[in-house]
Amino acid sequence: MNNQFAMTSRAFDSGKLDVKKSDTKYTVRLVKTSNRQKKVFENSFAVAYPNDKPLSLSSSEKDKWKFDPSFRNNKSDEENTYNYMELHRLRYAGTNTNADLRNYTLEVVTNNNQVRPKEMLLYVGDAFAYNDDPISTSGGKSKFVFNLATATNSDGVVEVANFLKKGEDKGVRNFTLQPRYKDKPEDFGADSIVVSTGPEYYEPTKSDNIQTILASNLANGTIKDIDVDLGAQGVKKYEYKIGSVAKNILSKSNSELKQDIHLVIDGKVNAATNSLNQFLIYREKAKKGDPLNEFTSVGVGFKNKISVTGDSKNPLNLPIISGAELKPWNYASTPELGIFENALLQLFSSFDGSDGPSIAVQGIQFGDAPKRHMGSVQLNSKFQGDIVTQDRWSKNGKATGFEDRLKEVIKADVKQSGIYDWNYGLTKNEVLFQDNQLVAWWGQSDGLESHSPKLTQNKIFYLVGDDAIKVNSRDGKYLETTIHSGPFGSAANISSFGLSNGPVNNNTIEPYIHRTIQYADEYSEFGGTIANRTYFSNEMVDPEGKIPAGISDTTIQNLYIPQMDDNGFQGNQYYRQGIIDTTQNNYTVGFGAPNWGNVVNKYRYNAGGYAFNNYQNYLADYVKDVMGLDPAFKIAFYPNFNEKNDLYQFTFDMEDGYANEATEPFLTSKQFMFQIDRNENVVLLKDSNNNNYRQYIDVKGITINRKKVENALEQDYVAGDAFQQDTASETNELQPDVLTGVASRFSEILSTNFNDNINANDKLVYKGSDDFKTHFVIKDSENDGIINGGTNYALFIARKGEKLADVFESEYSLESIPFQTTGGTKYFVSFDNSAINSFIYSRQSNREYQAILGDLDNKEAVLVKNIGSLAKDTSDKFDSQYLSLMI
Question: What's the CA gap between 601 and 575, in Å, rounded?
Answer without folding.
Answer: 35
